[in-house]
Specification:
Rossmann fold, 286 residues, 10 helices, 2 domains, alpha/beta, single chain, six-stranded parallel sheet, globular
């Protein structure tokens, strides 16, 4: 990709952007579309986001994605919030313009489109593992796909209740429960149509989560938002009991495509982005 004085700059703001496939995905999309744009990995320490965003605006960046640990701080720093960012109180995409910075959240839409692509369009109940920013987006996506009952399973009860307060304010579910973080609390998994793991746990060891995986059953949907590997110990254990399984790569792809649309005003070349994502992730792992 030629980079010159006319190149439009975008990027990823993260504490550690080394392992993200986002630069590969977006630069492949710009190349496929014939755009003189560039997407850069940008390392920003926690607590330094305000200075970083001021600098990016001064450097005429068109926009950036924002990830761990900056999503909540980005929501506070944006001049305006739109769409799901208003509901979730977290921002993963910023657009810069003459009027200031506009904050968006494309994670929920990304997961919603990924689940639709996998054929999961009629959820009834959700067992949600985790209570961070990704969990908030997962709850919103599941509610839009029909889930009316939510069970939250998280190590920190206070964070679980904070998530519950958010979904109550947004009127997303008819029934909401906080489960004890042990195998007794995990028994609610058996009655749910969908189980989403939004934590980094159980990538390689299923025992990292206090779950009885025998509770999975045929026809359930098990989702692991981890995208680094196409399979995880969590998904393997669920699949062995007959559950349908979905990894986090679809969510990553579709949230990136929505960021591309926000910045460029055009639909993203999905297949070019998908190929770049798979090559970046599987090539790095290999």
């Amino acid at each position: 990709m030629p980079i010159d004085g006319s190149t439009v700059l975008t990027g990823l703001v993260a504490a550690d952007p080394r392992f993200s496939p986002s630069p590969a995905m977006h630069n492949a999309a710009f190349l496929q579309s014939g755009l003189n744009w560039c997407y850069l990995p940008l390392r920003v320490k926690e607590g330094e986001l305000a200075a970083a965003l001021a600098g990016l605006r001064a450097l005429s960046f068109r926009g950036v994605n924002v990830t761990i640990p900056h999503k909540l701080a980005a929501a506070e720093l944006a001049d305006e919030l739109r769409g799901d960012a208003l509901i979730l109180g977290a921002v993963n995409a910023l657009a810069f313009g003459p009027a200031g910075s506009i904050g968006y959240n494309t994670d929920a839409l990304g997961l919603e489109r990924a689940l639709e692509e996998a054929g999961a369009t009629d959820l009834e109940s959700l067992f949600l593992i985790g209570a961070g920013g990704a969990a908030r987006a997962a709850a919103l996506a599941a509610s839009r796909l029909g889930a009316r009952i939510l069970y939250v399973f998280n190590r920190s009860e206070e964070r679980a209740r904070e998530l519950c307060r958010m979904v109550k304010r947004a009127n997303l579910f008819d029934e909401i429960y906080v489960q004890e973080y042990n195998e007794v609390g995990a028994r609610a998994l058996a009655v749910c149509t969908c189980v989403i793991n939004s934590t980094p746990l159980a990538r390689s060891e299923a025992a990292e989560l206090p779950l009885d995986y025998r509770l999975f059953r045929e026809g359930q949907l098990a989702v692991d938002l981890d995208y680094r590997r196409p399979r995880s110990a969590f998904l393997d254990a669920a699949g062995a009991r007959g559950a349908r399984t979905v990894n986090g790569r679809g969510m990553l792809l579709f949230q990136a495509a929505e960021s591309y649309r926000i910045w460029t005003g055009a639909e993203a070349p999905l297949e070019a982005m998908r190929r770049a994502m798979e090559e970046a992730l599987d090539g790095r792992r290999g």
